[in-house]
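#lab-general

N.A. 3:47 PM
ok so I finally got the sequence cleaned up, no stray characters, all 300 residues accounted for. can someone with queue access submit it? mine expired

B.Y. 3:52 PM
send it over

N.A. 3:53 PM
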Amino acid sequence: MPGSEEGGKRGSSGSRGGTDEKMGELERQPGDSAHGSAVWIAVLGAVIQEVELLFRILENSRTLSFRGESIRLGDFRGLRLLIGTTGLGKVNAAVTTAALLERFEIARVWNTGCSGAYPQGHLEVGDVLITDRALAGDEGILSHNGILSAVHIGIPVIEWHGEKFYDCFPLDRQPGWQAMKETAPPGLYPAAGDDPGNSFRLEYGPSLTVGMVSGDAETARERYTRYGALAENMEGSAVAQACFRFGIPFLECRGMSNTAGDRDKRNWQLQKAIRNSHAILLRFLGASLEREKAGQEPTI
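B.Y. 4:20 PM
back already:
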């Protein structure tokens, strides 16, 4: 990843008043716990491009190389945020998330980045999806007759509050979900950045996580028919599963950068997707901070 190297070498700098440090050299700071820094929210993307625009909101930030990835710790209106990368794909996402949750006292995790919108759904490039059900698309049974749910294996991937989960994580059942939805209800929002006068749609719905993205329209159509998801990505359910295991609230907010199955990158709009998803995240941040100060139930 840009800004970090294997073996705990120094990451990149460039933060406002920030510093680079090796993880092993991290000195105890005010508010740190016995096991690591107390973090209000960790915002994670697969690659640096999905999170670097958020660095500007941090005060007194420092950049760290952590398990081969780059993370940045800083303050947002008096509360500590962690913004960083997990690496591409489910394994990287789960491993990095779990390692961060072991190292730091993180109150909640927000996963952001880009997704491919299924053309049979109603999301378009530039729209934003908040995941209400994180679907694990690679778990189950594959045969010449098609795909069977992991329920047919009979072994859950995780148990949460006494309930067994096989290939779907119901994010909309977490405490704070309704408060979050009231903060940013579904509908049209003014586009961010260099797209004034236009708008994007915010939707709440299911998102599918896969190890291999759809390479053509037929594959995308089959996946939409099979799962009913609005979009696909490569990390979401893995981060959700790690957070469920640790008992940490989890939010997935992604911008639609392309149509699933369209591999012609000339049609992709990565920056538009990232800017619009960040606009929603910043809205959540402000509302969460106000609720925190008022002693109300926090958003996720």
